[in-house]
Prior knowledge:
CATH class of chain A: Alpha Beta
Number of strands of chain B: 15
CATH superfamily of chain B: Thiolase/Chalcone synthase
Structural class of chain B: alpha/beta
CATH architecture of chain A: 3-Layer(aba) Sandwich
Structural class of chain A: alpha/beta
Distance between the termini of chain A: 19 Å
Strand content of chain B: 15-25%
Shape of chain A: globular
Strand order of the largest sheet of chain A: 3-2-4-5-1-6-7
CATH superfamily of chain A: Thiolase/Chalcone synthase
Order of helices and strands of chain A: EHEHHHEHEHEEHE
Helix content of chain A: 25-40%
Oligomer: heterodimer
Amino acid sequence: MTTTHETALRFSLGILATATAAHDTGRDDDIALPKLPGFVESAFSPLAYEVSSRCLTAHPGDGARTAVALASLAGDTTTADLASRRMVSGRVHNPLLFMQATANSVLGHMSREFGITGQMFSLSTLVDPLSELLSMADVLLDDPELDRVLVLGVELGGGERVTAVHRELAATSGRSGPAAALPASAGLAAAVLLGRPGDAAGPQVSIRSTGSTRASAGRLGSIQSLFELAAAHAEPRTEAEPRTETETHPHAHQ
Amino acid sequence: MTREVTVTGYGVRTAFGEGAEALRRGVFAGVPAFRPTTRFDTEPYRTAVAAVAPDGADGADAVEGWALRDALRRCGDEALGMAGLGAGAEAAVLLGVAGDNRSVTRYWRRAGDSVSSELSDVGRGSVVAGRAHAVAPQMSQPRAPVGALPAPESNSLADAVPAQLAELLADGLGLIGTRLAFTNACVASAAAIIHACRLISSGRIDVAVCAGGYLVEEETFGKFDSGRALSRDGMVRPFSADRSGLLLGDGVASVVLESAEHARWRGARPLASVVGWGAATDAHHIAQPHPEGIGLALAARQALRQAGDPDGASLDYVNAHGTGTKYNDGAETRGLRAAFGKRAESIPVSSTKSTTGHLLEAAGVVEFVITMLALLDGVLPPTAGYGSPDPECDLDYVPNAPRPADPRRALTINAAFGGANTALVLERP
C-alpha cells in the first residue's frame, strides 16, 4: 500500500500554547486521570479535555475565531469496546456510552466551556497525526474569520481488540505497531494551539514544514511526534524572551 | 487564490438502490425506505425498523455485498467514471466514516462473553425500560464458547479504523494524493467536502474525491435506541407535530470535486458548483442542539456570505438536517429564521431523511447529491411522513409530495452531536 504524500504548509504557524498529558503509561510524568463529569470508563475524553483546556487557558482568545481538530487512530476505542462487549453479552446499551462513543462529545463539552463556535472536528490517522494536523491548521488559517486552531491527538492503550487491529494493520501495511503495548487503561494526549506568526502577542515559535512521508512518520496509532513537539515547547516563557525565529521542526520531517 | 469548485461526478447508493434513478424513485417521489431489518436481532430494541436495502426475492436485508469498503469503492468508481477520471489520477480522498462497526461486533462475538463479568456496572439502573427490557436480555446470536479466542480474519478487523477505509478506498481507486478520514459523526462527510473545497479553492489541489458511508448495524442501532432517539411509529416525520424520532438508513456516496479550470482543461462537464461553505459549533451542549439553532445559523451565514449572498436572496431550496426529533427540528427552524429572517418563510425546506433515514457519517455527502439532483432535475424532494403542523416548525417543508421548481441555488445543512454544524451552497451551471 503506497501512502506517501507531501505536506507543504503555505504559512508558518505560530505556537501559542502547548500541553501534554499521560496516564497509566509508566512514564515519570503520568498523571491521575482528570475527572470530567459525564465521561467515564475511558481516558480518551478526560485526557483530550485536559490538554485542550490547558492550552486554551494559557492563551485565552476569541472562541468565535477558534477552530479545533482532534486526531486519533479510531476515536475512543475503550468506550466503543465496552459498549460492544455489553451488547454481545446481552446487556442493554447504556445511554452514557451512546453519548461518549463519538469524539464530538468531548469537543462539544470543550466548545461549551470555552465558548468556541468555530469549526470543531475529529480525524482518524493511521500513523503520527502531526503532519495531518499541521496541514489542517494551515488550511483553516486561510480563513480570515479564524485566528487560532487548536490541534490535539489522543493515543489509547486500548486492549485486546485494538492490539489485534494493530497486528492486522501492521501485517497489511508494513508499518510497525506500537513499540510496547500500553496497558488498556493508559492514554497519551498532546495539544498545540496554533496561530499565524505575529498575530498574537507573546512568545511564539514558528514551524515550517516542507515535506513529510507518512510511511516513515511513526508507528500505528502513535501520537509521538505531536507529543514531542508539544513537550518541546511546553516550558513557560516570559514576554521578555520571545522566540520569533522560524524553524524547520524536525518532527514534521520524520 | 480563490478558484471555483465544481462537481464533475458522483456515485450514490441508499436503501433505494444504486444511482440517481433509485433516488428519483424513492427520495424524489416521497416514498420512505423504512422496513423491519433482518440484519440483526432487533428483539431487544424498541423498534425493528430502518431504511435498509432489500436483497430481492426473499425480502431479507442485503448484507453480503454491502461490506462498507466495497460499497465505498463501488460509489467511488461510479463517481470517477462519470467525471472521466481513472486510476493514476492525482486526487485527494477525503472520507467521512466511523469505520465498519460490524468488525467490532464480530470480534467480541467471537471472543464470547467471558469478559462479561469484567464489565463495569456503569449506568446500571439508568438504562431505560424498553420493550424487551422487562425480561432478561436475550442473546441476539449464539455465542462462542466462553473464553474462545477470536478467529483470525482477513483484513476485516482493521476496517473498524476509519483511516484504513480511506486508505483502502484511495488504493482501490488507484488515486494519488492525500487520504484523510473525518470522523465527526453526522457532519463527517460534509466536513470532508468543506475541506476539499478549501483545498481546491486555495489552489492546493485540483481534484478531490469526497465520500461517506454508513450501513445500518447493531452497534449504532443499539446506541441510538438506548438514547431514545429512534422513532416509535416506524416513520420519520421531520418538522411535523407528530414526529417521534429518527430512523437509521444505509447510505454511501462519493462526489468528485474539481477546480473549474482543471475541469475545463481536461474537457470535463461540471454538473454543479459549490459556491459557499461554512462550519460552526453551538457551544451549548454535548448531545443536544442549541435551541435557537445558533451554530446552524452561523454556518449557513458563513456559506451564504462566501456565495456572495449574505441574505440568502438567491436561495431556492434548503435540504435540511431534519432528523425528525423533537430537539432538532424546532432548533433548526429557528436557526434558519436567524440566518435568513423573514426570507426564510419563502424558501422551500425539506428533509430527505424522511425517506432515506439518517445516514450518520454519510448524511452530508448523500444529501449533497440529492440537493444537486434537485437543481439538475428541477424537482424539490418532499418531506415525507408530514402529518400536522407544529407551531415551532413554521416554514414551507414541501410536505409529502415532490414539487416542480426551477431552483438555481440550494443550501444543504447538517448537524451532529457536540453541536457541530455544516452548510454547503450548490449552484446549477
